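Exercise: predict the structure of this protein bound to flavin-adenine dinucleotide.
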Amino acid sequence: MKTTLIVLSAARGARWSISGHGSVKTIASHGKFLTTIFSQVETLNTVQERKASETEAMQEKITRDITADYDVIIIGTGPAGLQAAIHAARRKVSVLVLGRPGDSSLFKAHIENYCCVPGVKTGEELIHTGIEQARNLGADFLEEDVVSTAALADHTYQVVTESDNAYKAYALIIATGVSRKGLGLKGEKQLIGRGISYCIDCDANFFRDAAVAVAGDGSAAVHGAITLNRIAREVTLIAGELKISPSLERQLQETSVSVLTNTGIREIKGTDRLERIVLKDGTELALDGLFIEKGAKGAMELAAFLGVQLDPEKFTYIITDQEQATNIQGVFAAGDICGRPFQMAKAVGEGCIAGMSASSYVLKQRAAERK
Ligand SMILES: Cc1cc2nc3c(=O)[nH]c(=O)nc-3n(C[C@H](O)[C@H](O)[C@H](O)COP(=O)(O)OP(=O)(O)OC[C@H]3O[C@@H](n4cnc5c(N)ncnc54)[C@H](O)[C@@H]3O)c2cc1C
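Solution:
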């Protein structure tokens, strides 16, 4: 076990990195960028006020014991991540694949338009086959969500999972699909940036000493509620059934977060700002803030903290070149997260390229280190 210092800005080659590694200015620029994506409403003064507390919050995360080292870490167990794992593992680099297979878009699909696979196959069957193939070639799997990413000072990358374990690799492949979902309730969209947010990492500090709730039952929601518990006055987690690791559940129990399970939000109330929500059983909660965090931590947060470039119009997709390389050296992306069409064939094709590119990158890094 060793402790590693993480470089906060993590932006080798990042376009919006204003200054050098670890500076307050760089952190603030990332924070502003993230907020632009998710809440779109923020004044300059508030950004400045936030700088100091953001730095503090980030500092808490800067040292970690690394649980294990790999050559390539792949975030996502859908067709893009699995194909990347197959191609990387065949090149004899060590591979760790993180994520929950059941959360892949493919899992519930029925596929009849994939070349060389006749008839209709269930996505579940295809995913299990892909995992088996990658495993047989030597890839390791861990069925956990990633909650943070960071670049380390030695030009490697670290990911932290929901169980608070940290893994390190020369190369990262982001293959997280597209999953950001709202609640679909009346008033939800109008109140984004006015009490409603989809990004706890971006907006938590707006809610110092406030009453907030987090809606969601996956790792992102629980991790977010734990973060907010250090900032807000009272935090309520509103969940259906919690789908998290025992270790994350223990972390949650150690906080003062009020956990309401087997419920959901029926109504959102407020005109200029969020005022209250109504739960499915009719209970009303007066709130200053509501964070909607469904499923795993969104790829956009994971990518943005590394300085990965997103499409300039909507900040929805990761931009890659023909090698599936992002603007950050050693970080690759594949599948739905790189844009339309959302099809398995495209995800697999990009996964193949990303796996090959990442493994070539690792082999070059190793050769350079030997010189
Ligand atoms: C109902 C439905 C029907 C479809 N039908 C077809 C069809 O007929 N033909 C076709 O070609 N395509 C179809 N698709 C589309 C196809 O499923 C997707 O294009 C494909 O699954 C994309 O693959 P992906 O690997 O990029 O992402 P996904 O398959 O979505 O996989 C993303 C993976 O990333 C993981 N992940 C996300 N965030 C994190 C995190 N923070 N930490 C760790 N892991 C994370 C998820 O758990 C998941 O394992 C369908 C999709 C749906 C929803």
